[in-house]
Amino acid sequence: MAFWNRKRRSGGGSPHDGSDLDSARTHFQEFTASRRGVEAYVEPATNITATTVVLIAHDGEWTRRALPSRPVAFDVARALGVPVYDVNQTGYPARMRAWTARQRRTGA
């Protein structure tokens, strides 16, 4: 328990808790600017991670970052100017699974 208290006092946040909003925004902007056909999928918070946004490009390449809350996640995704979906309602596109499978086969 003391470890978590030290972490909180020091101002350090976990990349999985959504505390680094500026870094996530910058990463998302770079990803969106360098790829085409990007869509955003908002994932709900779990017991382990904060709310997350997954950006998926036209070829299935994807990236994920944690954000502080569901409303912030939707706001950040909308600010990118890409379509935004709730993953609980739409699921993930098949191209994301296909890209991940290709990456596993090639060892990348």
UniProtKB/TrEMBL annotation:
Q: Where is the composition biased (Basic residues)?
A: 1-10
- Domain of life assignment: Bacteria
Spell out the residue ranges making up region: Disordered: 1-25
Q: Please report the name of this protein according to its UniProt entry.
A: Uncharacterized protein
Classification from the root reads:
Bacteria, Bacillati, Actinomycetota, Actinomycetes, Micrococcales
